[in-house]
């Protein structure tokens, strides 16, 4: 059955999976990791976890979306029953402008899958999610309430907010480049008055 499907869809890329016994981690490392270059790939991914109700009861709608995504790019699109991953790669000498276009394209293509959701919010598998996901709190963590709960826990174990990365718990307290914390109005006013008083005492001392 699989062979027939492959023969009828020659424009799709298929890969075979194998299972092997490896006597030690070092042997596995030599076999799987040594031949590859850790700096070899430039790639962005996006994904959606599709409920089984869509897979079971709306196969035609799902197939139409696969075709729509396939005609755009087939470089790295795969279907794992109810987990859909889409991605694009680029060469090291690709311009920054083109890289931005690729990133925007991935985000827009992943949004196509949301037409299956009937106004629900599909989640994303975090390790293969779009890092530029607009609704990342809900997509990555399930709901705003769940995100808020995780953030409250983080504030206990990391009160200074030192451990951050893009679109992760607590990153909404920082600027988009993660260089500066976003200060509340009360903190800004407090700092402003502190600087005014400091300047006043410096001027008074120097007179």
From TrEMBL:
Gene3D superfamilies: 3.30.465.10, 3.40.462.20. It comes from the Eukaryota. Residues 124-163 form the Berberine/berberine-like domain. GO terms for molecular function: flavin adenine dinucleotide binding; oxidoreductase activity. This is Berberine/berberine-like domain-containing protein. The lineage of its organism: Eukaryota, Metazoa, Spiralia, Gnathifera, Rotifera.
